[in-house]
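Field reference: sequence -> structure
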Amino acid sequence: MHLREPGLTWKEDFASGTRAAIAGGVTTVLVMPTDQPWTSTAARLAAKPALAEGRVHADVGLQVLLRTDHRDLEAMAALGAVSFELFTAEVPAP
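Structure field:
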């Protein structure tokens, strides 16, 4: 799911996206890292749980963007990232 928080909540947010998942019978979702700004650093990942607190209706796993320099890989894993997405095209700067 794209749960577009922060930045693009007019498309979908933690509350609306997880409600839609539950309505469709889905109990666990992974949050895509393509919000605004993209979740490509440990600092941005660390901010996500506060955005979701008290507003999710399904189990949520946090996915992050794996940059080519891998500088935040270990820190993002320590923060609970459950999936790392690697893009083969240009991505926004951190």
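Note: Residues 14-85 form one domain.
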